[in-house]
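Sorry, can you check?
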Amino acid sequence: MSFAWPWQYSFPPFFTLQPNGETRQKQLSAWCALALAYSQRHRLPAMTVREAQDSPLFANHRLQRKLPLESIQVVLEELRKNGNLEWLDKNKTSFLIMWRRPEEWGKLIYQWVSKNGLTNSVFTLYELASGDDTENEEFHGLDEAMLLRALQALQQEHKAEIITLDDGRGVKFF
């Protein structure tokens, strides 16, 4: 199944941030929704600004239109303000895009643990993200950085504890 682009993506003015405040806010909301949907569909948790700039997300080759770098940075900053993006470096060249917040991923993971009677069990991060038991779960294949953030959120709620194992990290659920 291919990605369904929103109607705005085929509208050339979409690739120029509008000067009118109200129009610009609607446009930024549309860009944010598109960035989250695109990242989720393609399972892109982290990327650089350069990768984003060259990706189909911000460059419609059929229209021969590209969102300028300055505008991409405005969209990324809007995502950050909304809690859907975290910069991975001080220079703001790479970022983690979160179509679900860590707390939401944690909730999904804990629901799976509870539903399967796995409280008081220990899992490696690999088992959670890539194991056969989680194959049909939304969090299967989750990027390790996001998985750790989700588990940290559960740890703060006293539902899990991140532990160090001989061959890496794991988690115990309560």
